[in-house]
Design brief:
This protein has a five-stranded antiparallel beta sheet, with helices on one face. It is rod-shaped and about 130 Å long. It has one domain. The termini are far apart. It is an alpha+beta fold.
């Protein structure tokens, strides 16, 4: 009879590879998750930055609109009450003679000042002494303000205006300026006519 030889068994026991596969799949899942999270965080931070920027612009526009409305009211009231309107040679000031006294309007770059008194010609617009004088200040960021005076014919009132023009945008775009116009002496239209300094005797 043939003797049956025992089968040779390998001394090395093969371990299942499922654990190695699971570990590898977990690593891939972690990498994918981190990548997705980083993309989402980038999108969220960009959106948040845009929202904060838009909010800042809206607050600035609201503040500038309020400043513009207040300045327009004050300017019209002063010009309408003025008996005499003078403009300096440089064109940066309007000096008004009103029933309540002398009022000087000064255009200084991004700022417009209303000073409740007369200024000497030698006074610098941006001098600390001028800034400390009583009055109001209207600031317009990234804008340039200027004062204009249209001299009328004899016996007619003058027309004064403030023009606040935004600076050109980086891409070269131009935005139309805001202008407030007022007729001098409108409150005294039923009294003696108001004339400019050039028309005074």
């Amino acid at each position: 009879m043939k003797s049956h030889r025992p089968l040779k068994t390998s001394s090395k026991v093969r371990r299942p590879r499922s654990r190695h596969l699971r570990r590898g799949s977990w690593l891939v899942q972690v990498v994918v998750t981190m990548t997705v999270m980083s993309v989402l965080m980038t999108i969220a931070s960009t959106s948040l930055f845009q929202m904060l920027r838009q909010e800042s612009l809206m607050v600035e526009r609201t503040f500038q609109t309020s400043t513009w409305l207040q300045m327009s009211r004050d300017f019209r009231e002063d010009i309408h009450a003025a008996f005499v309107v003078k403009q300096t040679a440089g064109g940066s000031r309007l000096e008004l003679t009103t029933p309540d006294g002398t009022v000087t309007w000064v255009a200084d770059g991004e700022k417009v000042r209303r000073i409740s008194q007369s200024l000497a010609v030698t006074d610098a617009v941006d001098a600390p002494t001028v800034e400390s004088l009583p009055g109001e200040q209207y600031a317009f960021a990234d804008h340039v303000a200027r004062l204009l005076l249209t001299a009328g014919t004899s016996g007619a009132a003058s027309v004064a205006s403030i023009e606040v023009a935004p600076l050109p945008t980086p891409n070269g775009g131009i935005i139309l300026p805001n202008v407030v116009v007022a007729t001098a002496g409108l409150d005294h239209r039923f009294l003696a006519s108001v004339a400019t300094a050039e028309e005074q005797p």
